[in-house]
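Give me structure tokens for this 182-residue protein.
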Amino acid sequence: MPVRAGNVEALTIRPATVDDLKALHGIAERAVFKLLGDHWRPEQLNAAREARVYEVEPELVEAGRYYVVEIDGVVVAGSGWSVGGVFSPPGHLTVPTTVDEETAIMRAAYVDPDWSRRGLMTLLVHVTETLAKVAGFRTFEALCTPAAEAFLTTLGYHLVERVPTTLPDGTELMGARMRKLR
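Here you go.
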């Protein structure tokens, strides 16, 4: 049960640790199933789960480029970034899109549905972009779902292309490659 806004005592943003991965995978799954039910059919959602498409990549955590939001000591959201190259979500999928190595790619951005619509994802996008900018990046991209596409548009991202992804079982998902210049 979510805490009412007036009851929050502490909000912390910190680098994720390997110990956070189980909670983050649970947040991602709940967010995907709640937010994408209007965009993807149940069989697409289940195929994405089986392919581990939306799990947080341990490599991002190990590289120190994945961040979590904690409210009163509980992880409720996360987001990270990687250096440009091939979009390659977990599950050993290779999405047929590449970006230059001068671009930071926002990865695995999720908010627990119990905490949605409270500004946490906007905060995380700004944190993720800022830390990538500190590292020298000025262009940001994200391969995102239909729900995230609408949200990122409000933050200054624009659609570059629609990107079909075929999962190992043959199920196709459509994503959107979004870009923002700082």
